[in-house]
Amino acid sequence: MIGFPNARGTxxxxxxxxxxxxxxxxxxxxxxxxxxxxPSPGAETLSLTVDDAMxxxxxxxxxxxxAQYGIDSAKGLExxxxxxxxxxxxxxxxxxxxxxxxxxxxxxxxxDQLFELAGKRGYRQESARYGVQSAEASFxxxxxxxxxxxxxxxxxxxxxxxxxxxxxxxxxxxxxxxxINDIRFKKGAIxxxxxxxxxxxxxxxxxxxxxxTQDYLAAQNTLKGLLGLKPTVALNVAGDLExxxxxxxLEALKADALQSRPDVLAKTRNVSQKDAxxxxxRAFRVPDVTIGADTTMEGPQGPNTPHQYGxxxxxPLPLFNRNQGGIVQAEADLRTAQTDLDKTRLLxxxxxxxxxxxxxxxxxxxxxxxxxxxxxxxxxxxxxxxxYQRGGTTIxxxxxxxxxxxxxxxxxxxxxxxxxxxxxxxxAAVGREVTR
Length: 436
Description:
- By secondary structure, this protein is α+β, with helices and mostly antiparallel strands.
- Helices cover 68% and strands 10% of the residues.
- It is built from ten helices and six strands; from the N terminus they run αβααβαβααβααββαα.
- A hairpin with an 8-residue loop joins β5 and β6 (307-314).
């Protein structure tokens, strides 16, 4: 049979526990009541809205600059495609072994110009033009995908900040509860064990402040990296996570996405470019013509007349090589590009489906919180606090009310962020802003 300890031992252990908790509180207080690090004197402070963040991102994001260089490279190929082949100049000097160059020497000059037939130059220009358009669409797609990451990081900072504010509020409110009940304990209104439990819970709330601060700073650093800002820059992100009900049509979003998505446009332009390349490959079956003119000047004792002129025509005979391999390769490239376009269209519809599903689910979740859950959690906490101070409820009920409030508010903040993120996903899936 298990025996129960006597009352004196219980009081002794309670006092020891109280001393340990008090020491922990003193240690935590030595770290400072406000754990958010302050910017050093002279540090740059930058205030940003979500539009400001996007403008800064478009200006100095390194990945976006790399995509911009791809457009410049494609434009260089377009310039090259417009150029005519250079003429070829040849000079031939012939002298004698026994007589001087002035007597029997021969100076021959010849110039040849290649003329491309069967529209090769036009097809090459067409291919280069579609290449530029594809590069521009790829750049726009980089703005779409990276812009989503920037906005998501921006709203993640807002989420982390609201969680930090909640943690500070809970810590401050519970510290006031502990202060009041410390007075009540000294008056003998509550047992010592209840005061110890309150102090333990206060340490937990203070720890949540520290954790929320770390998450807030980490979220800021992620946003700084996307914006190309140094870690020493202090960010002041403006705005809050808000909710505004929206009604969207899935079929309309799909149709809009297939028209607006820049990656679809890039793949479409790529198909057109491969088609132009196939036309060019087939045109190579027709040989090009080289036309030349020459003149020969000789000394007075040369083997022929002193001055001669001539014209020439050079045409390769397509007996064996009619670019059969190039045509087969171009046809395969065109089929590959078309298949890639079909795949991208399918993925676009899947992206829209997933984004719309997330939107509808998170909107219902936010509406559930706003339908009374948040207010109920606040009222339960206030009622439990007043009831405990009057002695109408137990310490466990009070702690449970505070924990329920904290869990509910954290869930509500997460739901607001997830809802905002689902809107960003829809905009990214469609390829333009349709939810703002």
